[in-house]
Amino acid sequence: MDATANIGENGRTAAILDALDVAAILIDLDDVVTHLNEQAALILGIDRHEILGRSFYDLESNNSHYVHVRAALQRVLGYPRGEQQAEVILHVRGRDHAYLLKAAPLDLDGGAAFGTMITLHDVTYLRDKESARTNLIATLSNELKTPLTSLSLAIELLQRKTSDPKQHEIIETVVEDLARIRDLSDGLLNVTRNETTSIAVRSVTFDFARLVASVTKKFLLQAAQKEVALRTHVERALDCYGDPVKLSWVLSRLIANAVSFTPEGGSVEVSAGRDGQSLRISVSDSGRGVPIELRDVLLEQCPQWKPEGLDNGYAGLSLAIAKEIVEAHGGRIFLDSSTKGSTFVIQLPHARCT
């Protein structure tokens, strides 16, 4: 005889909850707690036997964890179905933990409701990563202010004393780069101060073909020193409506990474042109490429990838910032896995490019 036949419905439900890796509580239509697992009891700080069979809202109110969870639950139950969740901060095991509380109504096959499942997902690690990233961006933005000011003063002095046209051209390029860095630094600092929820972008009309030519030109010497061929394939008159400063920074990061990871004798190809209703920009290199298992995470708040593995570096942060800038334009950036080496693709919508 099958041993599971002797296990009652309550026993099976309890076994399922205990197998979950999140805190879980089941309450019926009368708000009575019918089941909860050990994780839930630990977080609430309540013995399982003291809570089972009692109304969830009638427990002892001198338990701060329970009070916070109860208040959060009462709040989310007022939200529309499918959006019933909220974050709760509780002090557990010597430090504050962030838990995502979710309330999921339970229905039978016929549609009749029979209770609610409450889960608490520990998202502390994610919040720690977000906080570390925010602090890093704020630190970098602040650290850039002093050298940017010094460089601006030095460049201004050079402009006054230099009469050679070629040198003036180089100085103008440096002035443009400094303006881009300052603008990006201010934008990132505003994000960390919660002044904006995302990186702000301007909306002006400019020629993307000229932008590509200007940005690529800055890397010709670096590529030549590595004996890497840097080539462009750009359609003419690519009028675009967006923020040329921030988009040029994105393109600069992609080209810089491509040149850096391309071995001697290799090549980097920069292309831009129409693709249906979008403007498509791609930066391809003939390097080793990115491992398959890392392609989906490389553009997130992310570790830097090197041929020898992952590393928490500024290059990974640069890609995450590039992603935010492109998405602020209503576009997307992704890694094309169908090519050899690495090919990063940017697509900007028709509304931004006419």
Task: List its traits.
354 residues; alpha+beta; Beta-Lactamase; Helix Hairpins; Heat Shock Protein 90; five-stranded antiparallel β-sheet; 10 helices; 42% helix; elongated
What value does the Rg take, in angstroms? 28 Å
CATH topology of the largest domain: Heat Shock Protein 90
Strand order, largest beta sheet? 2-1-5-4-3
Distance between the termini: 73 Å
Q: Provide the structure class.
A: alpha+beta
The first-level CATH class of the largest domain is given as: Alpha Beta
Helicity level, as a percent range? 40-55%
Shape: elongated
Overall number of strands = 14
Name the CATH superfamily classification of the largest domain.
Histidine kinase-like ATPase, C-terminal domain
Q: Please give the domain count.
A: 3
Largest beta-sheet details: 5 strands, antiparallel
Question: Helix tally?
Answer: 10
The second-level CATH architecture of the largest domain is 2-Layer Sandwich
- N-to-C series of helices and strands: HEEHHHEEEHHEHHEEHEEEEHEE
Multimeric state: single chain
